[in-house]
Amino acid sequence: MQKYAFVLICLLSLVSLNMPAYAQSGPSADKVKLRNLLSQITTLQAQFIQQVDDVQGNRLQDSQGSLLMQHPNRIYWEVTTPDETQLIANGEQVYYVDNFVEQVSIYSQSAMVTNNPLMLLTSDDDAVWAQFTVSQLATSSIQQFTVTPTTPQSQIVELSLGFAQGQLQRFTLVDNQGQVSQFNLSNQVTNMPLPVNAFSFTVPAGFSIDDQTQTQSQLRTQ
Fold first, then answer.
1. Which terminus of the chain has fewer Cβ atoms in its 10 Å neighbourhood, N or C?
2. Rounded distance, CA 174 to CA 156, Å?
């Protein structure tokens, strides 16, 4: 369950999808292409199927659900099977809701998007982009980009993104234990207004609260 929660929290780095396009000056051509593609997306609604495999390729888990993303820094991610969980990010805090154990974990959103390649999708800082390499694979129908860190500290050691006709179709995370999480999207709707309360959250009555924001603040100051 903790590994599954970690994968969901890593997805927070996908929520700031709207980034300005860059001319090819300094960054690699593949980095420029990726940033330009992402600049076309301001909101995203989709269903997903997730497959998780271990380092030997053995299937660990299948799940499915739906997601909403909106620039800046907002996401509603809901897993419907096999277990009901939600992840809601409102730009400041992140709520991870485990309905089976009736618990809500609260995180500081700014502390959740560091030290992994997904940071590229939330930052417009050239210094951050310089910490990663981006390469585009030559395919006939899918524009696929692979993002890797230049240092080995990242928990996510590789991120792959697949686009078709400018639409994000899939993404894959490889962690430092070799576990692979692949997400295939369907029924995507982009750049449509979302309800104003789409990312609001109130802790349900009777749920316990695990507030991690103070722990995260202490770690940042050490």
1. C
2. 6
